[in-house]
């Protein structure tokens, strides 16, 4: 059975809330970043000053007693630890910044730059790009690209982003190898591409939530990939469908209209219209 994920009002409201939160986090995060840098600079000065005052090695002179030496070691240890803590804090600030930036970027209105493009070419390029990783993971690629696919008005950069996201998800779902199928075709009104894997599959509950921002079952996932995919497809006035069975695999199917119409400007969340009908 095919499920078409529909952005519920609840999800839209949550997305809007998250967007304003992300935006508000930006300024204090920036201040945090700068102040950690200042702290690092001061710490380095302190370290240099301290090292300059280092006692001579034990063999060099008798005037350095064991008392001051112990203190010296203590301070050096504390300084080293402070440096290490600071590094961790900076790393986390960077991570936070990355997440916030990615999220806001995913929501930013970007109209696709439509120009006559061969969907087959985009598929081929994507597979070429990811082939080393696919081979590494022992995944067999099956390409069934229809010769009947005409050039269609689409944004090749955005469409490649869509396919990269789908193929990466497929790879990650096939932890023990499998088959990735990429299929294209055309009907009287549009072109379509299918990305299918023989991976873990999803439960109906997971399937319902795949397009939600931040929904992820991965340890290092952002949960933003499929939201971006959906937004790009919608901006092209296309449709995306997903079907999945636990233990058997997942199939994503994207349909894009053949005739040029004004692209839909990706609207900020809340104002997003439901998926276009045709
Ligand atoms: P992320 O990859 O960062 O988790 P996505 O939005 O791309 O974010 O995907 C959301 C979730 O949807 C994934 O964590 C995973 O649970 C599920 N998912 C997406 N694609 C597949 C797939 N091909 N097979 C199985 N599960 C998938």
Give the topology.
Blueprint: H1 9-52, H2 66-107, E1 115-118, H3 119-136, E2 139-144, E3 151-154, H4 156-173, E4 178-186, E5 190-197, H5 204-209, H6 225-235, E6 239-245, E7 249-257
Parallel strand pairs: 2-4
Antiparallel strand pairs: 1-3, 4-5, 5-7, 6-7
This protein binds adenosine-5'-diphosphate.
The site of adenosine-5'-diphosphate has 22 residues, from helix 4 and helix 6.
Gist?
This protein has 278 residues and is an alpha+beta fold. The protein is built from six helices and seven strands.
Describe this structure in words.
This protein is of the alpha+beta class and 278 residues long. Helices cover 50% and strands 17% of the residues. A hairpin with a 3-residue loop joins strand 6 and strand 7 (249-257). Adenosine-5'-diphosphate binds at residues 165, 169-170, 173, 197, 199-200, 202, 206, 210, 215-218, 221-227, 250.
Features:
ATP binding; 6 helices; disordered C terminus; phosphoprotein; alpha+beta; 278 residues; ATP-binding; disordered N terminus; five-stranded mixed β-sheet; histidine kinase; two-stranded antiparallel sheet; binds adenosine-5'-diphosphate
Q: Cα distance, first to last residue?
A: 21 Å
Q: What does the average pLDDT come to? A: 85
Rg (C-alpha, Å): 26 Å
Distinct small molecules bound, one entry per kind: adenosine-5'-diphosphate
The proportion of residues in beta strands is 15-25%
Reading side by side through the largest sheet, how are the strands ordered? 2-4-5-7-6
Give the % helix.
40-55%
Q: Spell the H/E element sequence.
A: HHEHEEHEEHHEE
- Count of helices? 6
Number of beta strands: 7
- The dominant shape is elongated
How does the major sheet shape up? 5 strands, mixed
Protein name: histidine kinase
Enzyme class: transferase
Region (Disordered): 264-278
Catalytic activity: ATP + protein L-histidine = ADP + protein N-phospho-L-histidine
């Amino acid at each position: 059975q095919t499920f078409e994920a529909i952005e519920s009002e609840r999800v839209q409201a949550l997305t809007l809330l998250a967007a304003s939160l992300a935006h508000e986090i930006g300024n204090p995060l920036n201040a945090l970043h700068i102040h950690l840098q200042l702290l690092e600079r001061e710490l380095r000065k302190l370290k240099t000053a301290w090292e300059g005052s280092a006692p001579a090695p034990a063999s060099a002179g008798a005037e350095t007693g064991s008392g001051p030496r112990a203190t010296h070691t203590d301070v050096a240890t504390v300084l080293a630890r402070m440096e290490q803590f600071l590094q961790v804090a900076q790393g986390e600030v960077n991570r936070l910044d990355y997440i916030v930036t990615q999220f806001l970027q995913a929501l930013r209105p970007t109209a696709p730059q439509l120009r006559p493009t061969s969907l087959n070419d985009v598929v081929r390029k994507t597979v070429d790009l990811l082939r080393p990783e696919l081979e590494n993971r022992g995944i067999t690629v099956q390409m069934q690209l229809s010769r009947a696919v005409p050039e269609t008005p689409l944004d090749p950069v955005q469409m490649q982003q869509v396919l990269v996201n789908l193929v990466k998800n497929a790879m990650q779902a096939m932890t023990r190898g499998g088959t990735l199928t990429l299929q294209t075709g055309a009907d009287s009104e549009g072109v379509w591409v299918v990305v299918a894997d023989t991976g873990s599959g999803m439960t109906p509950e997971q399937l319902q939530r795949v397009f939600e921002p931040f929904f992820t079952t991965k340890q290092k996932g952002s949960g933003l990939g499929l939201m971006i995919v959906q937004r790009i497809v919608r901006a092209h006035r296309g449709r995306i469908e997903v079907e999945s069975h636990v233990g058997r695999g997942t199939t994503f199917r994207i349909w894009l209209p053949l005739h040029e119409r004004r692209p839909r400007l990706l609207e900020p969340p809340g104002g997003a219209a439901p998926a276009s009908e045709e």
